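[Discussion] Sanity-checking designs against the backbone

I'm trying to build intuition for which residues belong where. Below is a structure token string of 153 positions. I'd appreciate it if someone posts a full sequence so I can compare it with mine line by line.
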């Protein structure tokens, strides 16, 4: 521990850079999206210490904590603005299917058939009268590995 304190006393930049790189490496390995902002905050403190702004360990840790909270809070607001809660996750392919038009590729027998939507064939379930092969249906929801569809209006 004395070696780390000696390095901090002579070159605090390297300690903060190491903290930032370590957090960034863990973030890259785990993809949690929560360690990115502490890594950025550690990088900012490292740059400030490299510029010769010596604040002492307690102030630097406080600045690191404040920057982490600020960056995390701002990023959450930005993400909510970009991805509103009423829209499905852009990366969730299955939820993006809801509301899309699909083409019937295998006739429905007893309410079960196959449809083509978004570049893939899916098992589809329908209640009531089903359109013929080549007809259109609309995806209502997902039911396990199947799509629940309805006749297009």
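Best answer:
Here's mine. Compare freely.
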């Amino acid at each position: 521990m004395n070696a780390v304190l000696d390095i901090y006393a002579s070159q605090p930049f390297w300690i903060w850079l190491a903290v930032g790189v370590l957090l960034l490496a863990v973030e890259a390995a785990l993809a949690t999206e929560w360690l990115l902002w502490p890594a950025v905050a550690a990088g900012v403190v490292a740059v400030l210490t490299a510029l010769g702004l010596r604040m002492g360990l307690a102030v630097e840790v406080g600045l690191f904590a404040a920057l982490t909270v600020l960056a995390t809070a701002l990023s959450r607001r930005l993400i909510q603005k970009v991805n509103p809660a009423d829209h499905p996750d852009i990366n969730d392919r299955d939820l993006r299917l809801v509301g899309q038009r699909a083409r019937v590729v295998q006739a429905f027998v007893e309410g079960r058939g196959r449809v083509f939507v978004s570049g893939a064939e899916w098992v589809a379930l329908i209640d009531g009268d089903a359109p013929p092969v080549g007809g259109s249906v609309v995806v209502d929801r997902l039911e396990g590995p199947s799509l629940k569809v309805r006749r297009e209006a």
